[in-house]
């Protein structure tokens, strides 16, 4: 297989070319780094050639000896539009802004989520005062939290601030505390989970602990309170910040997050014996029960230590109240 810039050329050996296999399935098998949906769009768009012919039918059947060319067009970064979306601003100055992101809001535009993102809201709120380091789609964005995770996020309003904050994230000196409601109770009650995180080989939407690749990830956790070992409130402090880190790490010790539909476990089956109102609220919780409650860093311009706190949003407050897990552990 040869690659020329973004173009891929290959003629598979006879044993790898199963005659009669559908084109999109064949390409997915040979180009695992690309999703099947992406390959189908490339086929339909005329970006796939078999021998010297462009093929636009995903149902085309491959033959032994076929030579394939896949032209991968460069990604076009559409400039996001400023949108008048209310923001819960915790702190703001000439260099940075700290916001309390609600669950359900995507941080930056992506395919299928071009509007209503935090970036759209920041562009309206900050006008032209966002750093350009993050690129067209991610102006000011230094880090991100999942769409359905609530809580604190800092954005940079100039390149100097962006580089200063990014350096602290790289050095793991940023303080980030999350609270998660999980099924079960971690054992031991306090500990550290270490395990490289990479994209799952079996489901491209998921991340997974990898023994042979990925990026190092470290989560320090402490079980604060538990309801009969069935549901627990866990404090998680991130040393690194990988995609889905807490969700993957807690799942790896058998403590899947309540409400997490992507990293599902058998937690719901353990609810038997608990009051009906508790079971109902836990089962119906609409998102992963995860809140970024505390964020601390050194101001990149002034050099002073800054610390911010976010109270539990209403949905998690209700969940904690019903499970009676909140006593003495609510963020300030």
Main attributes of the structure:
332 residues; Structural Genomics Hypothetical 15.5 Kd Protein In mrcA-pckA Intergenic Region, Chain A; Pseudouridine synthase; five-stranded antiparallel β-sheet
Percent of residues in helices = 10-25%
Give the number of helices.
Answer: 7
Count of all domains: 3
CATH C-level class of the largest domain is: Alpha Beta
Spatial separation of the terminal alpha carbons: 56 Å
In short:
The chain is 20% helix and 26% strand. The protein is of the alpha+beta class and 332 residues long.
Describe this structure in words.
- The protein has 7 helices and 16 strands.
- The chain has 332 residues and is of the alpha+beta class.
- It has 3 domains: 70 residues, Structural Genomics Hypothetical 15.5 Kd Protein In mrcA-pckA Intergenic Region, Chain A (Roll), CATH 3.10.290.10; 82 residues, 2-Layer Sandwich (Pseudouridine synthase); 149 residues, Pseudouridine synthase (2-Layer Sandwich).
- The chain is 20% helix and 26% strand.
- A hairpin with a 3-residue loop joins β6 and β7.
